[in-house]
Write a structure and sequence with these properties.
The protein has six helices and ten strands; from the N terminus they run αββαβααββαββαβββ. By secondary structure, the protein is an alpha/beta fold. The protein has a single domain, classed as Alpha-Beta Complex (DHBP synthase), CATH 3.90.870. A hairpin with a 5-residue loop joins β9 and β10. The longest helix has 11 residues. The mean pLDDT is 91.
Protein backbone atom coordinates (compact mmCIF):
# COMPACT_ATOMS: atom_id res chain seq x y z
CA UNK A 1 0.00 0.00 0.00
CA UNK A 2 1.36 3.42 -0.97
CA UNK A 3 0.72 4.90 2.47
CA UNK A 4 3.56 2.81 3.90
CA UNK A 5 6.10 4.32 1.50
CA UNK A 6 4.91 7.88 0.93
CA UNK A 7 3.51 10.23 3.55
CA UNK A 8 0.67 11.97 1.74
CA UNK A 9 0.37 14.73 4.32
CA UNK A 10 4.09 15.56 3.87
CA UNK A 11 3.66 15.68 0.08
CA UNK A 12 0.60 17.94 0.47
CA UNK A 13 2.64 20.32 2.69
CA UNK A 14 5.42 20.35 0.10
CA UNK A 15 2.86 21.28 -2.58
CA UNK A 16 1.43 23.98 -0.32
CA UNK A 17 4.94 25.43 0.02
CA UNK A 18 5.29 25.65 -3.79
CA UNK A 19 7.22 22.42 -4.30
CA UNK A 20 7.37 20.24 -7.40
CA UNK A 21 6.75 16.51 -7.32
CA UNK A 22 7.21 13.67 -9.79
CA UNK A 23 4.36 11.21 -9.36
CA UNK A 24 2.40 8.43 -11.05
CA UNK A 25 -1.09 9.36 -12.19
CA UNK A 26 -3.95 7.27 -13.50
CA UNK A 27 -2.13 7.49 -16.84
CA UNK A 28 1.59 8.35 -17.05
CA UNK A 29 4.22 9.69 -14.65
CA UNK A 30 3.88 13.43 -14.25
CA UNK A 31 5.46 16.51 -12.81
CA UNK A 32 3.03 18.23 -10.50
CA UNK A 33 2.55 21.29 -8.37
CA UNK A 34 -0.20 23.38 -6.82
CA UNK A 35 -2.37 24.42 -9.77
CA UNK A 36 -3.17 27.72 -8.03
CA UNK A 37 0.41 28.76 -7.20
CA UNK A 38 1.83 30.90 -10.02
CA UNK A 39 5.40 30.70 -8.71
CA UNK A 40 5.30 26.88 -8.63
CA UNK A 41 3.72 26.80 -12.10
CA UNK A 42 6.46 29.09 -13.46
CA UNK A 43 9.11 26.81 -11.96
CA UNK A 44 7.45 23.73 -13.48
CA UNK A 45 7.15 25.42 -16.90
CA UNK A 46 10.84 26.41 -16.78
CA UNK A 47 11.84 22.84 -15.92
CA UNK A 48 9.81 21.51 -18.85
CA UNK A 49 10.95 24.38 -21.12
CA UNK A 50 7.28 24.81 -22.00
CA UNK A 51 6.29 27.86 -24.03
CA UNK A 52 3.58 30.09 -22.55
CA UNK A 53 0.00 29.61 -23.67
CA UNK A 54 0.23 25.84 -24.07
CA UNK A 55 -1.95 25.14 -21.05
CA UNK A 56 -1.49 22.39 -18.48
CA UNK A 57 -3.63 19.43 -17.45
CA UNK A 58 -4.98 19.62 -13.92
CA UNK A 59 -6.16 16.74 -11.74
CA UNK A 60 -9.04 16.94 -9.26
CA UNK A 61 -10.27 14.24 -6.90
CA UNK A 62 -13.97 14.37 -7.75
CA UNK A 63 -16.68 15.92 -9.89
CA UNK A 64 -17.52 18.10 -6.87
CA UNK A 65 -14.01 19.58 -6.88
CA UNK A 66 -14.19 19.94 -10.67
CA UNK A 67 -17.33 22.06 -10.31
CA UNK A 68 -15.42 24.54 -8.13
CA UNK A 69 -13.21 25.40 -11.12
CA UNK A 70 -15.52 24.56 -14.06
CA UNK A 71 -18.93 25.53 -12.68
CA UNK A 72 -20.86 25.13 -15.94
CA UNK A 73 -20.43 21.44 -16.74
CA UNK A 74 -22.80 20.22 -19.40
CA UNK A 75 -24.88 17.23 -18.16
CA UNK A 76 -23.54 15.12 -21.05
CA UNK A 77 -20.00 15.70 -19.80
CA UNK A 78 -20.90 14.74 -16.24
CA UNK A 79 -22.46 11.50 -17.52
CA UNK A 80 -19.44 10.85 -19.72
CA UNK A 81 -17.05 11.31 -16.80
CA UNK A 82 -19.04 8.81 -14.76
CA UNK A 83 -19.03 6.09 -17.42
CA UNK A 84 -15.94 6.56 -19.60
CA UNK A 85 -13.74 3.46 -19.33
CA UNK A 86 -10.41 5.19 -19.84
CA UNK A 87 -9.08 8.27 -18.01
CA UNK A 88 -10.57 11.27 -19.81
CA UNK A 89 -9.33 14.85 -19.68
CA UNK A 90 -11.97 17.41 -20.62
CA UNK A 91 -11.36 20.96 -21.82
CA UNK A 92 -13.54 23.58 -20.12
CA UNK A 93 -14.09 27.00 -21.71
CA UNK A 94 -14.73 29.29 -18.74
CA UNK A 95 -12.78 28.12 -15.68
CA UNK A 96 -12.82 30.11 -12.45
CA UNK A 97 -10.31 30.45 -9.62
CA UNK A 98 -7.30 29.36 -11.68
CA UNK A 99 -4.28 31.45 -12.73
CA UNK A 100 -3.68 32.25 -16.40
CA UNK A 101 -0.47 30.17 -16.28
CA UNK A 102 -2.42 26.88 -16.32
CA UNK A 103 -4.79 27.98 -19.07
CA UNK A 104 -4.39 27.61 -22.80
CA UNK A 105 -3.94 30.83 -24.79
CA UNK A 106 -7.70 30.74 -25.53
CA UNK A 107 -8.39 30.81 -21.73
CA UNK A 108 -9.67 27.22 -21.61
CA UNK A 109 -8.33 24.66 -19.14
CA UNK A 110 -7.93 20.89 -19.31
CA UNK A 111 -9.03 19.01 -16.16
CA UNK A 112 -9.27 15.30 -15.36
CA UNK A 113 -10.99 13.64 -12.44
CA UNK A 114 -8.24 11.31 -11.22
CA UNK A 115 -9.14 7.64 -10.95
CA UNK A 116 -5.90 6.49 -9.31
CA UNK A 117 -6.24 5.87 -5.56
CA UNK A 118 -2.95 7.60 -4.69
CA UNK A 119 -3.80 10.71 -6.75
CA UNK A 120 -7.31 10.93 -5.34
CA UNK A 121 -6.03 10.72 -1.77
CA UNK A 122 -3.24 13.25 -2.36
CA UNK A 123 -5.60 15.76 -3.99
CA UNK A 124 -8.21 15.23 -1.26
CA UNK A 125 -5.64 15.90 1.49
CA UNK A 126 -4.18 18.85 -0.44
CA UNK A 127 -7.64 20.28 -1.11
CA UNK A 128 -6.86 21.84 -4.50
CA UNK A 129 -6.13 20.72 -8.07
CA UNK A 130 -2.65 19.51 -8.92
CA UNK A 131 -0.89 20.07 -12.24
CA UNK A 132 -0.26 16.86 -14.17
CA UNK A 133 2.17 17.30 -17.04
CA UNK A 134 4.28 14.52 -18.55
CA UNK A 135 7.56 13.95 -16.70
CA UNK A 136 9.70 15.08 -19.63
CA UNK A 137 10.83 18.22 -21.42
CA UNK A 138 8.30 19.90 -23.72
CA UNK A 139 8.24 18.18 -27.11
CA UNK A 140 10.03 15.05 -25.88
CA UNK A 141 8.35 11.62 -25.81
CA UNK A 142 6.49 10.95 -22.56
CA UNK A 143 7.99 8.25 -20.31
CA UNK A 144 5.77 5.13 -20.47
CA UNK A 145 6.99 4.07 -16.99
CA UNK A 146 9.11 5.38 -14.13
CA UNK A 147 12.29 3.95 -15.71
CA UNK A 148 11.87 6.26 -18.71
CA UNK A 149 12.08 9.51 -16.72
CA UNK A 150 15.35 11.39 -17.23
CA UNK A 151 17.70 11.95 -14.32
CA UNK A 152 17.49 15.69 -15.07
CA UNK A 153 13.73 15.70 -14.36
CA UNK A 154 14.09 13.48 -11.29
CA UNK A 155 16.90 15.66 -9.93
CA UNK A 156 15.01 18.92 -10.47
CA UNK A 157 11.85 18.18 -8.48
CA UNK A 158 11.55 18.42 -4.70
CA UNK A 159 10.09 14.95 -4.18
CA UNK A 160 9.78 11.76 -6.23
CA UNK A 161 6.86 9.61 -5.14
CA UNK A 162 7.85 6.04 -4.34
CA UNK A 163 4.46 4.54 -5.17
CA UNK A 164 4.52 2.57 -8.47
CA UNK A 165 8.24 3.13 -9.16
CA UNK A 166 8.60 -0.62 -9.65
CA UNK A 167 5.67 -0.81 -12.10
CA UNK A 168 7.22 -1.61 -15.50
CA UNK A 169 3.94 -1.83 -17.42
CA UNK A 170 3.86 0.95 -20.04
CA UNK A 171 1.12 3.56 -19.64
CA UNK A 172 -0.30 6.12 -22.07
CA UNK A 173 -1.62 9.66 -21.68
CA UNK A 174 -5.35 10.21 -21.27
CA UNK A 175 -7.75 10.97 -24.06
CA UNK A 176 -8.55 14.69 -24.26
CA UNK A 177 -11.95 15.93 -25.43
CA UNK A 178 -14.19 18.97 -25.42
CA UNK A 179 -17.72 19.83 -26.40
CA UNK A 180 -17.86 21.65 -29.72
CA UNK A 181 -20.23 24.54 -30.43
CA UNK A 182 -22.98 22.03 -31.26
CA UNK A 183 -22.48 20.33 -27.86
CA UNK A 184 -21.01 17.26 -29.57
CA UNK A 185 -17.99 15.49 -28.13
CA UNK A 186 -14.82 16.27 -30.07
CA UNK A 187 -11.64 14.32 -29.27
CA UNK A 188 -8.44 16.35 -29.36
CA UNK A 189 -6.29 13.33 -28.41
CA UNK A 190 -7.57 9.76 -28.45
Amino acid sequence: MFLLRDDISDIARLLEDGGLICYPTDTIWAIGCDATNETAIARLSALKEQPPGQGLILLVDSVDMLKQYAPKIHPRVETLLAYHQRPLTMVYEKPVGLPAAVKHANSSVAIRVATDEFCQELIKVFGKPIVSTAACKHGQPYPPSYGGISSEILGSVDYVVKYRQDDREPHEPSAIARLDRHKELEFIRE
